[in-house]
Amino acid sequence: MIQRYGLTVLGVVIGLLFWPLEAIMHDFVFDKGDFIPNLLSHDPNELWMRTLITLAFATFGWLAQRNMREQHLLQERLTQSRDHLRQIIDSTYDAYVAIDEQGVVIGWNRSAEKMFGWLRQDAMGKDISRLIIPEPMRAAHRKGMQRYCESGIATMLYKPLHLQACHRDGSEFEVSMVITPLRSGDKQEFFAFVRRAGSAQDALAGDGLG
Fold first, then answer.
1. How far is CA 164 from the centre of its chain?
2. pLDDT on residue 25
3. Interval 117-123 mean pLDDT
4. Using CA atoms, how far apart are residues 177 and 181, in angstroms rounded to an integer?
5. For position 7, what pLDDT does the model report?
């Protein structure tokens, strides 16, 4: 009840408080009679002004309350949509991996846990090159990342790739993926859905985002 009408009630209260405040001003500032007679004045003009001011405060409170309620509902919908999307990503067959512009993992689903052997809590916040990129390819990956962040130029985005990846136990295997950049505010992010390649042919020795 308070959350729903709190600001509206507050507006009415402030509007009503204007009545004794005005009476005090008439008494001590303008020297127009005593406080009680001014407060209980039956002057139509005075009553009309006080009513308008009270209605103005009440209306402002109601509008502010409605705006807050709409923002709260919107936030709930966004949270529900985000949770729903997270559940979809978490249950997809493909491994989902997302990194920021520094190559730090910011997204990792259950399939990624199974494919690469790293639990989500172990992978999040770690350098992706140390988790799933074979040692010989790490320097090229970092170089490609740096080049893209500086120039916006990359040759391995938006297209199917076949690359070598490594498991936590050190074993290597071929994967297929499409790397997609995503601008989030002033930050650059990258995400990919990864699956084991069906064959070893046409494998690329890729250079990260190069």
1. 33
2. 59
3. 95
4. 13
5. 65
